[in-house]
Backbone:
């Protein structure tokens, strides 16, 4: 880390979190997710001016991709906080936009911070990774979200190894069980999140930092916990989603600039090895042997676990944490409540379509019949 980055890092871990936390506590006490109150201008001024001075000074790009990506997240934290507190000034932020753009271009990613920066490219020091505030609920949210993403990653890593060994391979049983257990863990982390993170804190003090923000002339869409490749690898390997279906293809293509650089190839190559479901069907048509039957049952259990985890996301996270509080927000704030950019109703309809695909029973009917 050079001196400029070290200065930005030190500031993000101290002054930045202090002012954000003061503002969040004030909004929370007033029962709103934002306040335009002159008494708060001094805090907002520090975030904008001190943040821009430090993030805008970023010049030399780190050599290692991971360090460069982490630095993009640090610069993005400044822009995310300025947007969140509506303390934006084009002239002041121009050098920060330039730094973000240079970092994003050099990595082939969107020039903004994403969930991967919060959870995975964020070096902890003395037990703490960088957060926007010192609110314990924010750290819990990032941690449980990150654990969910790691669990999906473990499920994808297990499934990825199966095509090369064949679905009737006795060792595939172990990988299918590992994938199921990982998806059950993803569900358990999501259940903990629903239990441990208070909805009002999430809605008023955590989610607002995920909003879209401007970098130069372009509004970069908001961050969300779904920006990782593993869930799509699972969808397609299981045969529940088709990468050539225009709806699904558009979701994947849109996501590519927002996942960490090393995950982009997996999204570009979705479907290249076909699906496990098709492999099970093809083998079963030729005859249902003992290991094939056993593995197919385990495969169906993986599909059920995937559907259950995602249905929970929809019914117990998206709806209570976002849809219901948004419906109760004042009409003038409603327009800025969706993180990704499109209106909230559209985002929720899109997520509902994904829920239907991931929980569908029809694609598995043929395999069930072959096993009967
Ligand atoms: C309170 C917690 C959460 C809420 C309210 C929530 C809400 C949302 C929303 C609204 C989107 C659509 C994109 C956007 O506009 O932001 C989304 C996408 C997504 N979220 Fe969450 N989410 C939460 C936690 C999680 C967790 C813990 C995971 C799993 C690790 C997860 C996985 C995904 C995935 C994979 C997507 C991308 C769309 C898809 O492929 O289904 N989310 N989420």
Residues:
């Amino acid at each position: 880390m050079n001196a400029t980055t070290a200065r930005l890092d030190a500031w993000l871990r101290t002054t930045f979190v202090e002012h954000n936390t003061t503002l969040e506590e004030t909004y929370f006490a007033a029962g709103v997710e934002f306040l335009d109150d002159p008494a708060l201008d001094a805090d907002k001024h520090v975030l904008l001016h001190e943040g821009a001075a430090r993030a805008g000074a970023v010049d030399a790009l780190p050599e290692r991709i991971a360090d460069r990506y982490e630095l993009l997240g640090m610069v993005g934290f400044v822009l995310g906080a300025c947007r969140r507190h509506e303390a934006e000034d084009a002239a002041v932020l121009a050098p920060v936009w330039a730094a973000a753009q240079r970092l994003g271009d050099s990595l082939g990613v969107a020039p903004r911070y994403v969930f991967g920066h919060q959870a995975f490219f964020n070096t902890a020091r003395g037990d703490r990774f960088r957060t926007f505030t010192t609110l314990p609920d924010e750290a819990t949210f990032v941690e449980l979200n990150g654990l969910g993403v790691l669990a999906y990653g473990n499920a994808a890593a297990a499934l990825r190894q199966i095509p090369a060994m064949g679905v009737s391979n006795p060792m595939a049983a172990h990988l299918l069980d590992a994938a199921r257990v990982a998806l059950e863990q993803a569900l358990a982390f999501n259940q903990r999140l629903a239990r441990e993170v208070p909805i009002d804190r999430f809605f008023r003090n955590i989610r607002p930092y995920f909003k879209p923000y401007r970098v130069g002339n372009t509004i970069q869409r908001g961050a969300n916990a779904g920006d990782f490749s593993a869930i799509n690898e699972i969808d397609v390997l299981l045969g529940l989603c088709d990468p050539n279906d225009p709806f699904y293809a558009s979701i994947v293509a849109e996501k590519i600039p927002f996942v960490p650089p090393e995950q982009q190839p997996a999204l570009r190559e979705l479907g290249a090895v076909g699906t496990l479901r098709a492999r099970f069907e093809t083998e079963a048509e030729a005859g249902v042997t003992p290991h094939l039957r056993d593995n197919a049952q385990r495969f169906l259990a993986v599909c059920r676990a995937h559907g259950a985890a995602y249905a929970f996301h929809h019914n117990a996270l998206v709806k209570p944490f976002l849809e219901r509080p948004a419906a109760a927000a004042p009409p003038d704030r409603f327009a800025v409540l969706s993180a990704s950019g499109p209106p909230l109703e559209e985002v929720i309809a899109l997520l509902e379509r994904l829920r239907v695909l991931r929980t569908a029973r029809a694609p598995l009917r043929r395999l069930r019949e072959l096993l009967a």
User: Anything to note?
Assistant: The two ends are 61 Å apart (CA to CA). DSSP finds 17 helices and two strands in the chain. The mean pLDDT is 95.
